[in-house]
Prior knowledge:
Blueprint: H1 5-33, H2 53-60, H3 64-95, H4 99-113, H5 120-129, H6 136-162, H7 166-173, H8 178-189, H9 191-207, H10 210-215, H11 224-229, H12 239-271
Helix pairs in contact: 1-12, 2-12, 3-4, 3-6, 3-9, 4-6, 6-9, 6-12, 7-8, 9-12
Amino acid sequence: MKPPRTGRVAAHVFTYGSTLVFLLPVYILINVAFRPADDLTAGLLPSSEPTLANFSKAWNESELPSAIVTSAIVTTLSCLAIVVLSTMAAYPLARSTARLSNVTFYLFLVGLLLPFQVALLPLYLMMRDMQLLGTVWSLVIFYTGLQMPFSIFLVTTFLRTSVAVEYEEAARIDGCSDLMAFVRVVVPLLRPVLGTLLILNGVNVWNDFFTPLLYLAGSDLTTIPVEIYSFVGVYSTSWPLVFAALIISMIPILVLYLIFQRYVIQGFASGLKG
Length: 274
């Protein structure tokens, strides 16, 4: 039975209206990025003289290229560590029937409830004592530990609800060891949830501002959010330049999303079952 015409029209109006609301900031971002610095036209109105000068200035007159490299290294290493460690931790939690396994699983979930600010000072002192401040390894260790509880939760629930144990049993009958069954059978079946982890964790690491500001202070390294913040002046700010830098910073993570987009919804929905 089809819904009443009035209801369908209202649903379409709400849907398209919500889309316009969400797209409005994107339009303003692009519009302002392409206007001259001395153009004081309102952000909703297109510039009469669009220019690419803001992009070349943001790229050539700052440390944005090296910041992109640093952000890419930190994001890649962090995501790889998160995916590998969370998968190895989630597999025994999902397959073990012991009561201790459930207790351990819920202990990991406690990490979702604790804000990282609680351990901010002890973690900073630990990084200082390990002489890791000012290096990418301090960020990789921090992000890996911070994102592990959510990643373990997602992979464990995906294993329990979407990967049947019969696949592993069949592999063992064919002569595979437990390790080979995990690597050759289970891991390929985890592609949807692993793609989701890469996107969610990659976006969080790429866009984080506070942690690099704290751990890389005083060094030659900087990440994209910190470098973009350097464009903001005390008394005046060239917003076209800032918005152009924001668009440049969005391109790598947008490409990553386009590559893994078909896994994101499937993996996230499957991981939340039960």
